[in-house]
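Inverse folding, one chain.
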């Protein structure tokens, strides 16, 4: 098929799926059918708002019921970005329409763009009659659609309604709503096309530059990802992405493993939707699979999900279980960051995390140059506001060959408690950094840790609250008494609010058990 100019980078922007019996003149005064007039009106409306290159497929022929499903129509369906269904009794009784809808539904789920783009479906439901929801095709379930039929009074039979007349006020109003919805879908496709053009592939040159791998992201976060990538590049870091060509299951896995081998950090952005299914692995999805592949690599991972997502509405069950497992830290033994937060702080959280990783990398280079103590695992928990002091502490720990683990990041202390408790199983010392973070924040984190000690086994031998500037006064007092302990584990408060080096030395000696 000849590649035609379009807005969405598909051969056709919109495929109109309709029953030919619905394309009959409404009155003797209208010589053209309803669907044809509807298409003209839609195209005219889209042109008025600047979408002059819109490419709409619709079949003008009347098919005989003895004809086979047309291969040209099938090709048109498969090469369209959006399907617009003229939903009617005739539509539901048409085998051809059912076939068109099935083909589009199946192919869209497998494409990178997915069936859903944000909260919008690529299948647009145009209702010609007020039929009950239960009579709709299952591919149209969950969406009210656009009402191009007369209003029905409560208790009135839906068959008393008729398609709207083209010169009526209700038709103009509903066409405006449809136009806005389609334009938003077209904008999403344009953003994806632009992102593909700006895609950064693996560049093995200059491997010394800190490199961040970004997994595939949902359309709802595409602009956010682009902004973060730009911020990372301005800082001098390198960004690498999956090739858009590696879609088949085995090829995708091998390509992802290869690209991760060049990364110093893997970032995965998620929302409540699964995204497209993997070609050749219909029971898995690209974003989920990329996280799983990265779990098998030594690359640090940061997984982020918006707190605005409705977790109760996540489906299917397999994806919901995966998200819950990520939050609880039960998916994999590997340490990773799982943050549930808001987009406003995401860029800063990522940049802060990169700086922490770089500082750790540099400190490890110097480990062999100084006298080191026997390896000791320490879990450091801090609010992102205290990153500066966390990095200074980590550098000190590295000098003594202590191994620093991190509790999950995030502004909300109530999130990721189970991951914090899980990571306590790997360490002997737990250090809470109490600087700019609020008293409520640190108290919530300490409570999560002490609950773990009370009700579960843990190798933790000591808990420290390391207080740093600013001065907190009486309002910042945590009420931890001298010689306090939980189930035999002492809780020590280090009041180093002026960053006294002598106090820091005493703290290090305490960690070493001296």
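Residues assigned per position:
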């Amino acid at each position: 098929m000849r590649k035609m100019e379009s807005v969405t980078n598909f051969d056709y922007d919109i495929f109109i799926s309709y029953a030919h019996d619905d394309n009959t003149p409404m009155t003797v005064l209208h010589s053209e059918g309803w669907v044809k007039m509807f298409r003209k009106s839609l195209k005219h409306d889209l042109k008025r708002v600047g979408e002059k290159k819109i490419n709409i497929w619709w079949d003008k022929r009347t098919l005989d019921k003895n004809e086979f499903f047309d291969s040209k129509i099938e090709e048109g369906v498969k090469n369209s970005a959006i399907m617009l269904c003229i939903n009617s009794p005739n539509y539901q009784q048409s085998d051809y329409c059912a076939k068109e809808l099935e083909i589009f539904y199946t192919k869209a789920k497998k494409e990178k763009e997915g069936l859903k783009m944000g909260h919008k479906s690529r299948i647009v439901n145009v209702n010609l009659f007020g039929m009950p929801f239960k009579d709709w095709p299952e591919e149209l379930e969950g969406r009210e659609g656009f009402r191009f039929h007369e209003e029905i009074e409560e208790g009135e039979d839906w068959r008393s309604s008729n398609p709207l007349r083209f010169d009526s006020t209700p038709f103009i109003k509903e066409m405006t709503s449809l136009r806005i919805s389609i334009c938003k879908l077209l904008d999403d496709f344009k953003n994806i096309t632009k992102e593909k053009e700006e895609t950064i592939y693996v560049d093995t040159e200059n491997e010394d530059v800190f490199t961040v791998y970004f997994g595939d992201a949902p359309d709802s976060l595409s602009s956010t990802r682009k902004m973060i990538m730009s911020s990372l590049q301005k800082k001098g870091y390198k960004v690498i992405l999956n090739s858009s060509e590696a879609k088949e299951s085995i090829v995708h896995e091998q390509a992802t493993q290869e690209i991760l081998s060049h990364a110093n950090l893997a970032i995965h952005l998620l929302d409540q939707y699964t995204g497209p299914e993997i070609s050749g692995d219909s029971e898995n999805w690209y974003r989920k699979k990329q996280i799983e592949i990265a779990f098998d690599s030594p690359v640090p991972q940061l997984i982020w999900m918006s707190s605005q997502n409705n977790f109760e509405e996540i489906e299917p069950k397999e994806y919901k279980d995966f998200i819950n497992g990520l939050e609880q830290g039960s998916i994999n033994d590997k340490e990773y960051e799982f943050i549930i937060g808001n987009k406003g702080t995401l860029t800063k959280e990522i940049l802060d995390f990169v700086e922490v990783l770089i500082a750790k990398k540099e400190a490890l280079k110097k480990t062999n140059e100084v006298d080191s103590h026997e390896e000791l695992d320490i879990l450091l928990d801090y609010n992102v506001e205290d990153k500066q002091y966390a990095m200074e502490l980590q550098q000190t720990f590295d000098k003594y060959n202590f191994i620093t683990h991190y509790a999950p990041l995030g502004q909300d202390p109530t999130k990721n408690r189970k991951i914090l408790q899980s990571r306590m199983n790997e360490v002997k010392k737990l250090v809470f950094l109490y600087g700019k973070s609020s008293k409520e924040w640190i108290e919530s984190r300490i409570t999560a840790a002490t609950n773990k000690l009370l009700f579960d086994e843990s190798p933790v031998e000591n808990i420290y609250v390391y207080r740093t500037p600013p001065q907190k006064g009486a309002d910042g007092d945590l009420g931890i008494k001298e010689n306090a302990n939980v189930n035999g584990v002492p809780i020590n408060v280090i009041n180093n609010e002026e960053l006294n080096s002598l106090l820091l030395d005493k703290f290090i000696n305490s960690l070493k058990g001296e």
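Confidence is low (pLDDT under 50) at residues 63-68, 197-202, 367-373. The chain has 14 helices and 20 strands.
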